[in-house]
Design brief:
- The complex is a heterodimer of chains A (546) and B (684).
- Chain A is 30% helix and 23% strand.
- By secondary structure, chain A is of the alpha+beta class.
- In chain A, a hairpin with a 6-residue loop joins strand 12 and strand 13.
- In chain A, helix 1 crosses helix 7.
- Chain A is globular and about 75 Å long.
- Chain B contains 16 helices and 35 strands.
- The chains are: A alpha+beta (546), B alpha+beta (684).
- At the A-B interface, helix 1, helix 6, helix 7, helix 8 and helix 10 of A face helix 3, helix 7 and helix 12 of B.
Chain lengths: 546, 684
């Protein structure tokens, strides 16, 4: 069966529309702040072999990870019924971390499986030893929550009560989590219906041919961009501060062996897996490498499985980028961001005009949990902070904005205070935190929160010992910090707060790009006027008196 | 005579209705330096055409893009911002999320804030989440800020304090101080412009208000003055983004509601017509040269949102919910690096315009495809105003598309239409599904110069069953101004849990807002019997963060049963939109809203003469038009000669001055009693 380029494009819009619709359904039907305000979700449509053919525009970290999960799913199940739904969160079966629940549904057409729909969403809690699984000090996945290795959540359209019973008994906020899970199921079924309509309208053969053509198109775009880079080995490295248990940096090395129109990626030189929870499961490792390559090679190539064909990723088992079970993995984003950063550093040698300097390089994840005063109701408030992006070849970094891989929103101060016994006392940029350069790294953020009741404060953060790197002569960005009542506390850990205690969260700033002496003096003066750079730093870093 | 006047980028459209319901439509050129000039000229031209005198101009309803343009060109006032201490960067931090297009692309940014950091100052004060004063307002800190604002020569100041929607006292006092310290400087406070929670979105809204108000107010004053001189009998009303009118004098202080009102005229017109023709569920699409505006109309009313963005900035006021995508007649077709055919979002706009304009445009556009396929007549485009060069269109498509795609000329041209239609279909699906609607349950009302060309194909693509092309689709937005009611929306975040939803307390909250609406209607001079007041509330289940709007019975004394009904209605709506039933959920009442309407007098619609079934008299001849893969001899009709009851069998094209409607083979077009063109698309 053949298709023409026009029909292919019409079908592409249809498929993307399906992924979008799934996303709308999920966001609007879910309960928890993490999904609704932060939008840590992704939806996708797959062909019958489990290859991604369209995805909703949400978090790339979650997007590309689907490939490995789907390969496993297709292998594992042959006994599909219409209306089945599979739930999985197992990092050792292509999952991300336990709080990311993945939900898949087969799409039947004329009695046969013709494709799948899938969604992944970050949930506020899946049980385990710490609320929201936000804590340092965990050393095994068993402590991180309930592990669900591809189980049927629905059979022929009916919820499997046994599974729901297990979930209800093992998580802290079952109403929210189960509500969110049902939202994912609803989104999955919306996708199923729409894909069936598309198959009926165009015919399954035409749809299949169009999907093949779409993947080929994306593949061609990536290969064309690869071809333009000289063959060779490009290496970059970065470090995770520590794993929250052993106080030593964890080395991440990414090697790109580029030849012709394809590239092999390995991690030779990378640290072995660690005791703490910063181990990065293989699906996330793939996502990080894919992200960096696509961003640098062709950021607007339609995102589907074809994009990844020119890439081969080889991560040695037992390393921090492909751990053996039962390593703890909850804070894998800390490591995956470094994989992306090391990748950009490597690629800067081939394509200096297409990369950025080092960024905040982690997502500062904080969970405040306690009991609503005078009730038996528990709260878990997840507060996520981004930080400063690295400076770019033609522009400064985006002050305080998220960068690379994950894509999320902060929680409004007023929303947080209306729902939880917390008071935010400041939320602002920190001057002089962006690395100096021809283009300045982005400023870091500071958020101070006062606990109004006793509660626990669990967290993981990074880039508090190893700064975001500057490139091509740019200076490093500032490091971040976590404080309670002004005193530094460990970046990864758990504390108890008394009423009145103040937590101070400072994210890292971005690294600079190019020689600071080449910076347009007017931009320096503007930064000083805006209080983004102090007069003293202007003199020291740029040699400009203001 | 009632006159609607809509100022667009190139043309100013004027529609007048006299007491007998006779409509007159005219076009003049827009005068960008001072649009009020074009407005007065347009009225003059219209009155002359209608044979009316100056004193016959009684009501002028005006849609202006002055605020929109000022924002797009960043020509607003030099604005300062005063926030709660510790939060001056909220405006720039935003929600920390890079834009959609920046998912992988490092170079795509959110718009730069309208107030640079140096002009964002702080006042020492704090209100808590229960509305309690945590720290009283330090008036000295406000005075010090005023001093800096004076030195920096700002001409507008926005004030946004945390939780001011619960306790506006600090913001009000700050405004008093700023106004007395900074005479002549405009001050907007967030508790008045947008008394709702979420500090970034609220701050963004009040900043937009301060940034644009001085320009909008100056314009309105100038126009009022000019009209008073030339047409003393005429009352001036301005159309707001919520699709309702506002008397010119009210624009002072509420200018933000006039911003982004461009698409509101079309949405209002479409809603009005959907009620008249008994199609209460309609999706209206306005397709012009560069953009495609989509509005969902349910129960005969345009969907209103309070959660929109304006050129990338959140703008939280009640607005007609119009979704815009970059698809229009000028959208450029191109082949990407992977060999796929794309259309838009880049547009050839008016200059150089599509290749067929012959003004040097070399890239093929949607209009070029329509010309090549015979759907647009080169001799009758914009009523013959521009003569099109088909050869240039052919050349552009051949050179840029046929080669790279391996398609014939007609396949490529047809491909452009299919791709742009698929893109528009995706836009329509997106904005209906987000609201829990299935677009297939709706009629499609298409207008704008290019809308009627694409309407039937688009309806088929989506599976919609009926297409409606209104009379004078090129000036339909101006018609919307004629039928717009006067409207004032007021809201307040109250955040009541179920236990706090005491009927007496609720009634007091509604009545408080209603009082403000009634006072506005008093000022408007609207009589009691022409008023309609609507109460509604935004609710959500505890822990959710999106609200749904539900109507509330309007009674001076609310009863327990009213509250119960409200909760039930919310649960039902929630289930319809979200497809799951919530069990044992606690509800939160987030905002109360009052809409105060001053109803416009019923507008009689003109009725074209009735004709026999055969439209032969309107047929101008035949032409070769390509449908799907095959070229057919299509009949060409002149719309102005069609009569009510006429049935036009496809393949056909119905031409009029500013637009043309394509009827594919096996479809039939019927002219209804009001002169609308109806095409049923049921069954494939």
């Amino acid at each position: 069966m053949k298709t023409d380029p026009v029909t292919t494009q019409v079908i592409r819009y249809r498929l993307e529309s399906i992924a979008d619709e799934m996303g709308y359904t999920l966001v609007r039907t879910s309960r928890s702040t993490v999904i609704k305000e932060i939008m840590d979700i992704t939806c996708a449509v797959f062909d019958r072999r489990g290859r991604t053919i369209a995805q909703g525009h949400h978090a790339p970290m979650l997007l590309t990870g689907f490939e490995i999960t789907m390969a496993e799913l297709v292998k594992r199940f042959q006994d599909w019924e219409e209306g089945d739904v599979v739930l999985s969160n197992d990092p050792y079966l292509g999952g991300q971390h336990l709080t990311d629940l993945q939900v898949f549904a087969p799409v039947f057409f004329k009695g046969k499986v013709a494709g799948f729909t899938g969604s992944i969403a970050h949930h506020s809690d899946v049980g385990g030893s710490a609320p929201g699984t936000v804590a340092g000090g965990l050393t095994e996945i068993f402590q991180e929550g309930l592990r669900l290795p591809m189980v049927k959540l629905c059979r022929a359209g009916r919820e499997v009560e046994d599974v729901f019973g297990i979930l209800r008994a093992n998580i802290r906020v079952p109403d929210k989590t189960l509500g969110d899970l049902r939202a994912q199921v609803a989104a999955g079924f919306v996708g199923v219906r729409r894909l069936q309509e598309t198959l009926a309208r165009f015919g399954p053969d035409t749809v299949e041919a169009a999907c093949a053509a779409l993947m080929d198109q994306s593949e061609r775009r990536i290969r064309a961009a690869l071809k333009a880079i000289p063959d060779g080995v490009y290496t970059g490295e970065d470090h995770v501060d520590d794993d929250g248990i052993d106080d030593r940096p964890i080395r991440i090395v990414v090697n790109f062996r580029k030849k012709g129109d394809s590239v092999t990626v390995d991690f030779e030189g990378t640290a072995p897996q660690v005791r703490g929870n910063v181990n990065c499961p293989i699906a996330t490792t793939h996502a990080a490498v894919y992200y960096a390559l696509i961003a640098v090679l062709d950021p607007h190539a339609p995102a589907n499985s074809g994009c990844y064909r020119p890439f081969r990723v080889e991560a040695a088992p037992g390393t921090v980028v492909n751990p053996h079970p039962p390593a703890a993995v909850q804070a894998r984003t800390t490591t995956s961001q470094k994989i992306a950063e090391a990748s950009l550093r490597a690629l800067s040698k081939a394509l200096p005009a297409r990369v950025t300097a080092g960024s905040h390089g982690n997502i500062m994840t904080n969970a405040f949990s306690g009991w609503y005063p005078g009730t038996r109701r528990r709260f878990v408030c997840i507060d996520i902070q981004g930080g400063g992006g690295g400076a770019r070849p033609a522009k400064d970094g985006r002050d305080g904005q998220d960068t690379h891989l994950a894509r999320f929103m902060n929680t409004p101060v007023e929303a947080e205070e209306l729902e939880y016994p917390l008071r935010v006392e400041r939320y602002e940029f920190i001057p002089d935190t962006g690395g100096a350069g021809r283009h300045r790294g982005a400023l870091a953020l500071r958020r101070d929160l006062r606990a109004l009741e006793e509660m626990t404060f669990s967290r993981y953060a990074d880039r508090q010992k190893v700064p975001p790197f500057g490139i091509l002569g740019g200076k490093d960005g500032a490091m971040g910090s976590t404080r309670v009542n002004g005193d530094r506390v460990k970046s990864k850990g758990m504390s108890t707060l008394k009423a009145g205690d103040v937590v101070s969260l400072c994210t890292p700033g971005g690294g600079g790009y190019g020689d600071p002496k080449e910076r347009d003096p007017e931009q320096v003066r503007r930064d000083v006027r805006d209080g983004k750079v102090s007069a003293e730093a202007a003199r020291r870093d740029y040699g400009i008196e203001v | 005579m009632r006159i609607g006047i809509d100022v667009g980028g190139t043309f100013t459209d004027v529609v007048g209705a006299d007491a007998r319901g006779r409509l007159t439509v005219r076009k003049t050129s827009t005068t960008p330096q001072d649009p009020s000039e074009g407005v007065v000229a347009g009225i003059r031209k219209l009155l002359r055409a209608a044979g009316a005198a100056e004193r016959d101009a009684r009501l002028v309803v005006h849609g202006t893009t002055i605020g929109t343009n000022a924002l797009l060109e960043r020509k607003g006032a030099r604005t300062g911002l005063l926030t709660t201490a510790g939060f001056r960067d909220v405006l720039e931090i935003g929600r920390v999320q890079r834009p959609d297009a920046g998912l992988y692309d490092f170079n795509v940014d959110n718009p730069e804030p309208l107030v640079p950091r140096a002009l964002r100052l702080e006042a020492v004060e704090r209100v808590g989440a229960a509305g309690e004063v945590v720290a009283p307002l330090d008036e000295g800190s406000v005075r010090r800020a005023a001093e800096t604002f004076r030195r920096e020569k700002v001409s507008a100041v926005a004030v946004s304090f945390l939780f001011s929607f619960l306790r506006p006292g600090h913001e009000r006092r700050a405004r008093e101080i700023l106004e007395s310290e900074l005479p002549g400087v405009h001050v907007s406070i967030s508790s008045e412009v947008c008394p709702e929670f979420r500090e970034f979105e609220r701050t963004s809204t009040v900043v937009l208000s301060a940034y644009l108000a001085p320009i909008v107010e100056t314009y309105v004053e100038r126009l009022s003055g000019r009209l008073r001189k030339e047409y003393p009998a005429a009352e001036l009303r301005l159309i707001q983004a919520n699709g309702g009118g506002m008397r010119a004098a009210a624009a002072k202080g509420r200018a933000i509601h006039l911003v982004n009102s461009g698409p509101a005229g079309g949405a209002t017109a479409a809603a009005f017509l959907s009620r008249r023709i008994d199609e209460p569920r309609t999706i209206s699409v306005d397709m012009g040269g560069t953009s495609f505006d989509i509005t969902t109309i349910a129960d005969g009313l345009a969907h209103v949102t309070t959660d929109a963005k304006f050129d990338g900035f959140p703008l939280k006021i009640a607005m007609d919910d119009v979704n815009v995508i970059g698809a229009g007649g000028g959208s450029i077709a191109w082949v990407d690096a992977g060999g796929a055919l794309n259309v838009g979002p880049r547009s050839a706009s008016a200059s150089p315009g599509p290749a067929c304009y012959g003004r040097g445009g070399e890239e093929p556009t949607v209009t070029d495809a329509n010309v090549v396929l015979g759907r647009i007549s080169p001799d009758y485009f914009l009523g013959g105003e521009i003569r099109l060069d088909r050869e240039q269109a052919v050349e552009a498509i051949r050179r840029r598309l046929c080669g790279p795609l391996g398609l014939s000329l007609e396949e490529a041209a047809h491909g452009i239409l299919r791709v742009v239609n698929a893109n528009m279909a995706r836009g329509i699906a997106g904005c209906t599904v987000q609201r829990g609607y299935d677009p297939r349950d709706f009629a499609l009302m298409a207008f704008g110069g290019a809308g009627p060309l694409h309407a039937v194909d688009l309806a088929e693509e989506i599976g919609m069953k009926r297409v409606v092309i209104p009379p004078f689709p090129g000036a339909f937005s101006a018609f919307g101004l004629l039928v717009a009611d006067t409207r004032h929306d007021f809201s307040r975040t109250v955040m009541l849990k179920e236990s706090g939803m005491d009927p007496a307390r609720l009634a007091a909250l509604f009545l408080g807002l209603e009082q403000r609406g009634q006072a506005e209607l008093d000022e408007d001079g609207i009589s009691e019997r022409d008023r309609k007041i609507l109460w509604s509330a935004d609710l959500r289940f505890e822990g959710q963060s999106y609200e749904l709007n539900v109507a509330v019975a309007r009674r001076r004394r609310l009863a327990e049963s009213d509250v119960k009904r409200l909760l039930e209605d919310f649960a039902r709506l929630h289930e319809r939109i979200y497809a799951f039933k919530a069990v044992d959920e606690k509800t939160v009442l987030v905002n109360v809203r009052v809409t105060s309407l001053g109803l416009s007098p019923e507008l009689k619609l003109p009725r074209p003469p009735k004709g026999s079934a055969s439209p032969k008299e309107a047929c101008k001849g035949t032409r070769r038009v390509v449908f799907g893969g095959s070229a057919l001899e299509a009949r060409i009709y002149e719309r102005s000669r069609l009569k009510a009851g006429h049935v036009v069998e496809g393949p056909a094209v119905v031409e009029e001055e500013i637009s043309c409607t394509v009827v594919p083979p096996k479809r039939a077009l019927r002219v209804d009693a009001l002169g609308n063109l109806l095409i049923d698309v049921e069954g494939r």
